[in-house]
Amino acid sequence: MAKDRVALYLQDAHSLQEGIALVKYAEAKGFEAVWQAESRLVRDAIVPMAAFASHTSTLKVGSGVTNNWTRNIGLLAATFLTLDDLAPDRIICGIGAWWDPLAQKVGIERRKPLLAMRETVEVLRRLLNMENVTFHGEFHHVDGIQLDVVHGRTTPRHVPIYIGATGMKMMELTGEIADGAVLNYLVAPKYNLEAMDALERGAKKAGKTIDDVDRPQLMICSVDHDRKRALDGARKMITQYLGQQPHLMKASGVSQELLDDLHQVLTWPATDEQIEAAMHLVPDDVVQMCTAAGSPAEVKAKVREYMDNGCTCPILYPLGDARLMIDIFSEGYA
Question: What is the pLDDT of residues 257-292, one digit of tens each?
Fold first, then answer.
């Protein structure tokens, strides 16, 4: 019987040194990949990815996810070429459309997100295939460029491109043009069913089936033998996202009434004090609807719900004791 797939997700809750230690531990325990976040203005994905790749030998290392707005397409391709030089055939480019108001606040107008993503993926893939590329689109304009490798491998690079999609139009595009979808966290398992339909529609456009599209999924995992501690750890995270990215929560079926109540307390960006003050408004059932939180048995059951609804590999974001989470999931979840 095949071993259960499982991966680790890191943001900025751990120092880079701690992250390296966790990644090495996860590799030793049979995890298949680590995905490094890049969303808020805090930690870029590329430096940690290089650190993780240089301290491991089999683990895949993905960006989870960078965006298609802030790096010139030539630099984006050169960056992933360089990572592939460091860890050949172990790098995954996860890329998403970013989010407002943050993009707007740094001067980026996220218009026509589907077309922008389509152009980015096409040009990036051709460059990593070591082609000479001329492309005159609405978002990318390149004339006769290629990855100018003089010293080293000049063969096409195997860097799969996964799109971090949340909305169904982007999900359909992902099924059509990407190697995989990085499904979002803070969504209920039923959200996956709609996502699978969209991915299937997109895959059919390209003459593929949904089985040709890998579907790992970010999941907040707060596990502890003390159930209350596990739930409270996830509750704080949920409260923060309810304030910062309500579109995620609304997609999961969180009531507008709860969102309105929270926005009476939270500003953007929310302060720690505001989050602490608002946490009591979020009930246990909302916490467990959108996260794998609670006892070891509960979190494994929740992961199975997402898997039953189309996810192919959980990407677990540890709240609390990360090593305990890695230990628990190293034994599988079936």
Answer: 888 888 788 876 778 888 888 888 888 888 998 899
Assigned token pair, 230: 């596990």
Whole-angstrom Cα distance, residue 139 to residue 146? 18
- Provide the residue ranges of all domains of the chain, joining segments of one domain with +: 7-221+310-330, 226-294
From the CB of residue 106, how many other CB atoms can be counted at a distance below 10 Å? 11
Q: How far apart are the C-alpha atoms of 101 and 107, rounded to whole Å?
A: 10
For residues 287 and 276, the answer to whether their CB atoms sit within 8 Å is no
Integer Cα distance of 97 and 65 in angstroms? 9
- The contacts of residue 135 (CB under 8 Å, 6+ apart) are 119, 122, 123, 126, 141, 142
CB 130 within 8 A of CB 147: yes
pLDDT band at residue 1 using 50, 70 and 90 as cut-offs: very low
Residues 6+ apart with CB under 8 A from 211: none
Instruction: Give CA–CA dist 311/301, Å, rounded.
Output: 14
Q: Does domain 7-221+310-330 have CATH number 3.40.50.2000?
A: no
